[in-house]
Design goal:
This is Regulator of CtrA degradation rcdA. By secondary structure, this protein is an all-alpha fold. The protein is 74% helix and 0% strand.
Length: 135
């Protein structure tokens, strides 16, 4: 599990840096020919991207803290340390006009990573249920 969390952390960190660089470049090179509503939609999707990655990184850092003995497993299972934002992090049916292929790629990869970490987080509930059933 440690190796899996380490590789997932490295993947998340790399994707976060890639998204940061993309968004910084995109901010400098805005596309004035886009309609205001399309620019607004792109901004919303950029926030969705950063929200996903922030949620993933926060969850992974909590898991690393557990592995390093900095916090207890019970503390990590607390509601404040669980992955959240599901209603915000769900992808739209389609990307807005003006979204380039790189943004589409980042959105897709961030969603896949978010869903993977969400599945890992849900396993904490299974462990809790199993502990409660045990005599």
């Amino acid at each position: 599990m440690v190796t899996y969390l380490d590789s997932t952390y490295q993947e998340a960190l790399s994707l976060t840096k890639e998204a940061r660089d993309y968004l910084a470049d995109r901010t400098r090179n805005r596309h004035p020919w886009l309609k205001p509503e399309d620019r607004l939609q792109i901004c919303c999707e950029s926030m969705r991207l950063t929200t996903r990655l922030t949620q993933v990184m926060a969850w992974l850092l909590v898991q690393r803290a557990v592995l390093n003995g900095e916090i207890s497993v019970d503390e990590a299972r607390g509601p404040d340390n669980r992955i959240s934002g599901q209603n915000v992090c769900e992808p739209p049916d389609e990307l807005p006009d003006g979204a380039d292929p790189r943004m589409a790629d980042l959105m897709g990869r961030s969603h896949q990573l978010y869903m993977r970490v969400t599945r890992l987080d849900s396993q904490l509930d299974r462990v809790d249920r199993a502990k409660k059933k045990a005599p």
